[in-house]
Amino acid sequence: MGLDDRDELTVLVDRLRWDRRRDPYSGGRAYSRAAQDLAGHCEQLIHVGQSAVAVPVLRKAVDRMTTALMYLDSSSGVLGNDLAYLMDLYARACRDAPPRPKSLAAWLVKLAFDGPGWPDVRLPDWTPALGPAGIAEVSRLVDQRAAAGGSDGQQWAVRYLREQLAEVSGDVDRYVNVLAEHLVSAARYTLIARVLADADRPAEAIDWARRGLTHHPSGFQTADLRDQLVRLLIDTGDPDTAMAELWTAFHTQPTVDNLRKLLVTATDTHQDTPHTTGRALTALRERARQDPRYLPHLIDALTLTGHHDEAWHTGLPHLQDLSARQRTELLQSRQRTHPADVQAPYREAIDTQLLDSYDKRRYDRAITLLGNLRDAHIATGDTAPFTAYLDQLRVEHRRRPTFLAKLDTARLHSRTPGSSGHT
Questions:
Q1: Residue ranges of the domains in the chain?
Q2: Is 234:270 a contact under the CB 8 Å cutoff?
Q3: What pTM was computed for the model?
Q4: Tens digit of pLDDT for each residue in 167-208?
């Protein structure tokens, strides 16, 4: 690598300085480009076997960008991704050209404990560069920090690095024991079950998954834990118990997502899928009758299982109460087979949309619905009522010039019977 190339690297890394007095909402794109330019040069150095040149440059780049993001708006996530990539490149370069292990260990620990919370420190990425001496130094420094006590953030960092030290040790029992010190969520049980499954200890993994479901029977993380348990049961040759777990989840919460898992598992394990479908729909119909909050799940379940006619008649009285996504799907599905049925609902939806002052895209959405309504009339061979409805809209909304302009642009009158597609 020549002197000019080194000078270019110096220029690139200097572009990652950030004056905290600058407007935090200005200059983000240029800063991102600077980070990406530096990353590209360093990636090329690693590729051609000059990681030793890239190591100090990337270390400085990560430090500068870590500081800059404290004063620079990064809400879009782009700059965070740029920093994560620089951190990844630094780990790769260190694997090829390891710095002094104790120095690297001290930097990683300081970043985890004293940094602003980014970038993430993942010891498995650094283990090849740290080696036994570096890992031992990380462990010593973490113990030192733990003995000093400190804030909740400091204690979190202690736990986070201790878990990673256990992970990279290769000792499964040690890793599980450390993870089990903090069983605060279903996700922790999922992780333990995964670790044991990867170690070819399925019986223990199943036990931990069951324990997790006992302590955390509901919540957004519980679904992943149950999925893990179901996979383990199937892999160990117990599909009936796997289905029983899914039925328990479905009866607790008869949602379309839980139904989908039931049907997929029934198919994968060669069980009676039609029977599963009938039994689940019966339960969901009853739940929706008792609790209207389950009505959208019933409609989606009916659609999922091909009961389109029942889905339409179930949803029709409640169209305006459904989500825009579900309402559109119902109308479009019914339009394909019964175009006359959707004409009145489309008009009602259009009228509602035009009066929705909270939706900035209300006119665009109304035009889309008008295109669908036009096609429904074309399919029945009678477009006169649609033309009359357009004329009525022009009169009713004559004081909405923006809508009228969009209506003119859409040229909805220009379609003739037999044509297709939207404008």
A1: 1-97, 338-423
A2: no
A3: 0.84
A4: 999 999 999 999 999 999 999 999 999 999 999 999 999 999
Distance in angstroms (rounded) separating the CA atoms of residues 111 and 121: 8
Chain centroid offset of residue 106 CA = 34
41-45, 146-150, 370-374: the lowest-pLDDT one: 146-150
Quick one: pLDDT at residue 259? 97
Cβ-count burial 133-148 (b if 16+ within 10 Å, e if not): ebbebbbebbeebbee
3-state secondary structure string, the chain?
CCHHHHHHHHHHHHCCCCCCCCCCCCCHHHHHHHHHHHHHHHHHHHHCCCHHHHHHHHHHHHHHHHHHCCCCCCCCCHHHHHHHHHHHHHHHHHHHCCCCHHHHHHHHHHHHHHCCCCCCCCHHHHHHHHHHHHHHHHHHHHHHHHHHCCCHHHHHHHHHHHHHHHHHHCCHHHHHHHHHHHCCCHHHHHHHHHHHHHCCCHHHHHHHHHHHHHHCCCCCCHHHHHHHHHHHHHHCCCHHHHHHHHHHHHHHCCCHHHHHHHHHHHHHCCCCHHHHHHHHHHHHHHHHHHCHHHHHHHHHHHHHCCCHHHHHHHHHHHHHHCCHHHHHHHHHHHHHHCHHHHHHHHHHHHHHHHCCCCCCCHHHHHHHHHHHHHHHHHHHCCCHHHHHHHHHHHHHCCCCHHHHHHHHHHCHHHCCCCCCCCC
Q: Are 94 and 59 in contact (CB under 8 A)?
A: no
Four-CA torsion 11, 15, 18, 19, nearest 10 degrees:
60
Please measure the distance between the N-terminal and C-terminal CA atoms of the chain and give it in whole angstroms: 58
The per-residue pLDDT for 417 is 42
- Report whether 104 contacts 62 (CB < 8 A): no
- Please check the confidence at residue 323 and state whether its pLDDT lies above 80: yes
